[in-house]
Every structure is written in C-alpha cells, then in structure tokens.
C-alpha cells in the first residue's frame, strides 16, 4: 500500500503542475489542500480520472484534491515525492491572506484553523462518544429491568475509562495537534495540555465551582467575580469555575499553545545550540504555562460570568423571558460548547436542581443536537462527495447518542451554512421549550438517552413542598418528556428543511 501511495502522489504532484507550482500543501480529514501559484497548470479532469481521487474542488483560494480517509498517508507521500517539507504551510498562506482581503476572510481562516486542529481527533471523538452512548443505554436498560445501576460493575468501569479517557485528557491531544499547526514541538504542546489536566489544577477548579470553605473572590459581587483558593506568588491562581476545569475543553489549550509557540520560536532562535535540548522546552513551558494559568483562566472566568449574567437577565424578563432566553440559548449553545463557555450556565442548572428538584434554565439547548444531525443528514443525502458522505454517516450515528463534535468539526462547520442553519434550528426549538415551560429533572445526556432527563419522578411530598409558589408544577410523569420530544421534531425539521433548500454541494 505504501508503494501505491507513492505512485499516486507522483501522479498528483505532476497533475497539479509539479513541485514548482506548489506554494503550500496541507490536508484536512479527507482532502489534500494545495495553494498553487497558477491553477491553470493543474489538470482537473485527469486528476479526477485517477482511481484513488474522488473529486477536485476549487474553493477559498485552495485547490483541493479529495482522497478520503487515506489522505494522511497520501499527504506524507506527496511531501516525500515532491520534496515539499520546506514549502510554506497553509497556515502561512492563510495568515498572509488575513492581512489583506483574501478570499476567505478572518472568520473563514479562524474556522479552518480550529477545524484543522480538531480534525485529527475526530475518529477518536466519534468512537469514544458512541461507546459512552452505548454504556448509557446499557445502564438505562439495566435500571428499568432490575431497578439497579450497573455503573459500579467492573465491566462498566473499565469500558467507561476507555470511552471517557480520551475526553478527560482532550487538551493533551489538542496540545499535540495545535503545536503541529503552530510549528512548535508537539510534545511541548502535549505538556501544556497535560498541565491543564493535572489533578491539582482540576481540584482548584472544582473547589471554585463548589464555592466551599477557603474559596476567596476577586472582584466579589460584580460581574467580574472570580473564585480562587490559592495564589501564585501572591497573584490569585484562577482556573475555570467548573467541576472538570480545563478537561474536555477545546479552545483554551489552542490559545495556550498558540501563545507558547511565539515563546518557542523566540527561544529556538536566541538560545545557543549546546543547551537548546532542554532550555527551549523549559523556557516555553515556564513562560507559556504560567501565562496559561494566570491569563487564560481569568479571561475564561470573566467571559463565563458575563454569559451567565446575560442569560439570567433574559430569563427575568416578564412574560416573554423564558421564550426569549430559550431562543437565544438554542441559537448560541453550540458556539458556547466549541469554546467551552457552556460551563458558565451549568451552575444555574445545578442550583435549580438543588432548590426546586428540577431545572427550567437549560432545556432550551436540548434541540441543538437534533438540529445539528438533521443538517448532517441533509448534507449526506444531497452531496455526491463520497468522503463527505462517509464522514457524515459516522457523525450522524454518533450525534444520535449526544456527541456532536464529529458533526460540527467534520461536516457542518467546514461547510459554514449548515452550521448556521443548525443554530437557527436550535433557536426555534429553544423558543418552543421556553414557551412551554419545559423542565428537566436530572443531569441527563444529550441525544436519544437525554429524553429520560425530562421524566418527572418527584414524589407527591416533593411536589407538595412547593405547592402555592410560582415554581409549583403539577405535571408529573412523562409530560415534559413529550414536550421535549416535540421540540426534537421541531429542531430536526427546521435543520433538515433549511439545509435541503438553501445548501448547495460544491459540485453543483
């Protein structure tokens, strides 16, 4: 197979005009992405006639050759046969485009940047998400049949570690891919991600999240309030106020590695070769890692506080507050998840659950998953790009169990319009949930299994405790689950229909 890749690479390099016509080369999940000096030298028809080439696409100033899942091996072969290691990377070309009026623009470049960093992780994100979905299904069935959970059994614990381990240490994986994208030693990127996942740091975040004894507050009683329990040489050491800290987050580690890459490149130029082996990583980690904890943490906390306050303000609007808040939450939830800022709203749900035995703040986001996979389904049915179809099918199945990252990063976000449409679908369903006063009664998962979170299993005594208050809900049983299911239908219908009507495959 290696020889086949070399032969295919020779043909591709020759048909795009030879090494001398290649300004830059990169790859995504399924495509070789060339920046050519002159696209007129490329032979589109002959490239598409190759057995292992699915399609040629010209978009966003790039000449894209669609290969499929084997693209990484073919990319390595293309670099080898064309001696392209010293060529500019696509990052350089996009950075130059950003300085002027390039065809993509800043937003397109940022989306491509994040998508390409996450792309190498999509396979594991999809597979581990599916395993977690199956485990949740197993536990749910066992609970219905036997009345007992299986979460404490050895088999469940081992399988859950397999499924959740990748997510728990996701910043390490993204640290590696980010470092490669920003031209930095990938193990230094992994080290930065590992520091963000270190148990002591996670414990600081959990302590700030709980607001327990020993927690102090910077800018207390303001929108900029930031909890902390220790200091860094007198400077408050602030981490995200969430139970998991930086674990399972996407954007913080990307920003941290991006910042650290400048330190790495400076140190690599200034430090004598005799001590570079240990001095460059040490300086990069000390400066970049410290900046991560002293600046990224506080900035993330401030943004999360502002998001939480904003949604609290929306909810408090008389009469229409719940509907407006649901619509806005449904519209922006997926964007918040991408940046890890959805944690800002989780404390609201936890507070409601502890006080009222149910939550009325976050049900508005439940339809987002369904709007997302509806857009993916429409893309699958419309596109003739076989590689996109394969990615879409895997993302759709994974999304049914509540894991939408493969759908977002592998399908809708790179295609732009389907992602926007999925946000519209989320907004419409969110408004419906707010209008209907939808409540959830447990910390549920997204996707199919998440419907069980809307079953009201409260005892009559618990309901009676709140009778006569504005929070009293007489609707027990499956009422809210039926409402949640209706919102799923709305979100799915809006996402699918709008994508089908307005999105056009590039081949058209």
Notes on the structure:
The protein is of the alpha+beta class and 508 residues long. It has 3 domains: 2-103, Gyrase A, domain 2 (2-Layer Sandwich), CATH 3.30.1360; 169-311, no CATH class; 325-502, no CATH class. It is built from 20 helices and 8 strands. The chain has helices spanning 2-15, 44-49, 71-82, 90-99, 105-118, 122-146, 154-168, 170-181, 186-197, 199-210, 251-270, 276-315, 321-339, 346-356, 367-382, 386-400, 405-415, 417-435, 460-464, 479-502, and strands at residues 22-27, 31-36, 55-59, 62-66, 216-218, 226-228, 231-232, 235-236. Strands 1-2-4-3 form a 4-stranded antiparallel β-sheet. Helix 5 (105-118) packs across helix 8 (170-181) and helix 5 packs antiparallel against helix 17 (405-415). The chain is globular, with a radius of gyration of 25 Å.
**How much helix, percentage-wise, in residues?**
55-70%
Tell me the β content.
5-15%
DSSP summary, beta strand count: 8
* SSE succession: HEEHEEHHHHHHHHEEEEHHHHHHHHHH
Discrete helix count: 20
Low-confidence stretches: 93-103, 467-474
Radius of gyration: 25 Å
Cα distance spanning the termini: 33 Å
Shape: globular
Q: Average pLDDT across residues?
A: 81
Placed side by side, the strands forming the largest sheet appear as: 1-2-4-3
- Largest beta-sheet characterization: 4 strands, antiparallel
Look at the helices and sheets and give the structural class.
Answer: alpha+beta
Number of domains: 3
